[in-house]
Sequence to fold (207 residues):
Amino acid sequence: DTGKFSDIISADSVGAVCRIMKSGSKLTVGITGTNTGYNITSEGANAGGIVGKAESASITIKSAPGTTGEITSVQGYAGGIIGHATDTELIIEAPSESLVSATLSGTLGTGGIFGYYKNTSNGRNFDLAEFNINCTLNGENSGGVFGVLENGGSITVSDSGTNTVTVKRTSEQSGIYGGIIGTYLSDDKSNALNISGVTVNCAKDTG
Fold:
């Protein structure tokens, strides 16, 4: 449906479409429109461009132009699509209409797609050809795809297309700044992280 959003502020986890998705829940998003300059702010938890927090959920995005404004978490994680996610499947059906171009700032983690992502045991594949990332990362633990990535299994990040992950920052707040991942956590050396065929453009710190 045609999306018209005002600024969104919450004390809890918050997103433009959904605050919190619990285990087994499914969401399909189809938004069109040109009103993309709104801001999303969580004052006490996580903020996402689409969903604030998702646990073992499935999200399909048919179209979602996203905001060109600010996505801010004062006390948690901020993500271009999901603020905080655990074992969640994200399917993008129209990459050209799912642009992440916001200015993101999270106190604990800041990511172009996920502020925080935890994979407990499964094999996860993220094809960046499905995403269109060109954003500003001004929070802590900043990464072009993942702010904080916690891996308890196997994760593959690749690009079967020709997309470039483009990120920059305009603030001195972020001490950790990565093109794909801000902070990577894994407590078992048998866990695997494979990254291949990904092009990243990280602008210099202009703060």
